[in-house]
Fold this protein.
Amino acid sequence: MGGLGLAGAAAGGLLTGCGAASGAEGRYPQRPIQMIIAYAAGGGTDVGARILQPFLEKELGGQLQIVNRPGGGGWAGWNEIVQADPDGYTLGFVNSPNFMTGYLDPRLGREGVGPDSFTFIANQVTDYGAVAIHPDDKRFDDIGGLMAYAKKHPLIVTSTGVGSDDHYASLRLADRYKTKFDVLHNEGSSDGISDLLGRNADVVFANVGELTSHHEAGELKVVAVMKDSQERSKYLPDVPTLAEAGFGGVESWSSRGIAGPAGLDPGVVERLSAACRTAINNPEHIEQLGKQGLEVDYRAPEDYLRMIRKDDKNIRRIGEKYVWGEQARQ
Amino acid sequence: MDTTLLAEALGNLLTPQVLLAIVAGVVGGILIGALPGLSGTMGIALLVPVTFGMDPVAGIAMLTAIYAAATYGGSISAILINTPGTPAGAATALDGYQLTRQGKGAKALGVSALASTAGGLVSAFALLLLAPPLAQVSLAFSAPEYFLIAIFGLLIIGSLSAGSLLKGFVAGALGLLLATVGIDILTGYPRFTFGTTALQSGIQLVPALIGLFSLSQVLVLAEGRGTDRTGMAEGLRGRALPTLAELKRIGATILRSSGIGVFVGILPGAGGDIGSWVGYNEAKRFAKGPEKEEFGKGSIKGVAAAECANNAVTGGAMIPLLTLGIPGGSATAVILGGLLIHGLQPGGALFAESGGITYAIILGFLLANILMGIIAIAGARFFVRATRVPMSVLVPVIVALCVVGSFAVNNSLADVWVMLVAGAVGYVLRKVGVPPAPIVLGLILGAIAEKGLRQSVVMAQGDMIGYYLSRPLSVVLMALILLSLLAPVLARWLRKRIPEQEREKAAA
């Protein structure tokens, strides 16, 4: 692939301007790529992106500029990706399913936008959902007990906001297994965890990456990872998956990956996709994200799109039923 | 505080970047305070975006250093040209200016610097000792308690409005209204967003602060007020450092004023201006014989009492800020904005989870007060000169900083619009005598109150009143709220002790 040669050409282009670039026609990238993060600097997505940055820069032989554009539940940044020129110089990180509420909820007025507004390039991380309870809870101490109890008695479950993956996670579990959950919305998983520890809430819905250290410290007990397969999370080997515990058919994750605006040139996508695959699968990158409790899950463009479509289908149904549809408004 | 935490805090504090930030904050703060018309709040608001790129300890330590130093800086113009640079310097002008007329301006500045440092140090120690146990209590807070504490904070709006209670409540209500803009966190419904993405996350605090405190104030300045500098020509002469005999004379005054200042600071809604007046009046009351006669005619005790008390307010005011997230006044409201953009949510977690950062900030505040004394005395002649900078230079620089700063926080042009609108609204409100601080308080506390109330509805699972009564902390807070209804009465009583014409000056 001649990574080094490309790096040299790109660096030359940067130093001497268009003169050098004219000799490298068709090569990508010729100038720094803007990478939009829809969350503030220092947040989970931002940290993950900055960890990936040097690996991806090396593979692409070009520069990435990380631009934080928080606001509007992420849509300040995602709008910028959607509306950018599809020239490959404006890309960004998309968080699924969290970005879906923004276009699916008709009250937010973004009906014109959807998965087709993006070109999905590579998934970086898939952090599965997990269910945690207080370690001293006398009423139940595993997922089976919890579900049986919640069929009869309403439980207060935490969420990291309307339309967050954790919100949909509890809605989907309640929808399928007829449990009674009163959702307590908060702005982050740490608020939910302190409400659980203070016995103000009964169950925390969050992600593996957010719960692992608390579980290991014994502050709370993770009773299930929200995965519809028998394979356990490598970070929580002592915790069964939902499918294992007999509650199959429901799963939840929070994924993030790189996307650009719709209509990105296939040549550019191919170039980006190849670079992303090598960078994301780099063992050093995997290890650094692992330290954050995050599971690297590289997916190529078609596979990534399939995952997004699956999310879209699930969220559309659950959201319609419980969040913004007729039934929800009663 | 255990030794590992102390070591971590000192490690965070004693880095070149942090120390430089504190020195810059002290120098900048004294300058801002010394310039008549520019308040410390305005300076802090302007610099919050600058701290964004710094590490949290450096950034917040710089903001608190400005807060302390600007409170002292206000005395420079109060003493030399009888124009308090900040409302808190008004009491200082009484005796300070008389000293200047007697040719003892340098001495007055020296006493002021010393007294400010002493008051600031006492308040910093109070913060260090009182904040952690209070924070421990707030760790047990959940939605019902946050709702009640926000209501508690909203009640102090009455006392924040220097003049009319009604105008204060109008401003507070406007802030509450602004707090409802954005996506409703419990239903996801977009409120007052007018179809824009920018407003979906609500009115951004920092741009609103910059507009309300900095831009609106500079607009008032641009009208040409306060440009009369005829009394400014003289340089400083004579000895600045007080003699040992003089130190002995003011020692008791400084102790008393420190205590008063810290107490007034902790009281929500009573700021540096009230602190310095109460300190001044108490010093006068305790003085005997010829010393009492001297007050108003050039008493170094008068200068020391006022300056010490208003600096002692600063540390006191940071106690409720750091432990509960309740800013008692405008300067602490802006510092709250600074904490939030660094992801530091005030409350128990600030001490439990980011103790290394929090204690470094507190120790940095302590250090800033020491440096303030040294820099103030060493650089007195330089700071005097700085008070002559013409408005025609200052105004455009500040406006430019307002625009750049509000853009920088989120790289968002929409935030610049928020700042401009807030600046225009703040200007109009200032013209009709409505103070901007209650708006900001309403904006901050309105969001906390709404979230707390609505979350507690979910938690109560039906029986709201029973739920609130079943929580001991909630019961205590409800009792406090009932008591706080008396706070405006207390504040008014304190204000009554301010001479009429000075009160108006302080409110301006």
Remarks:
- The CA atoms of residues 132 and 409 of chain B lie 30 Å apart.
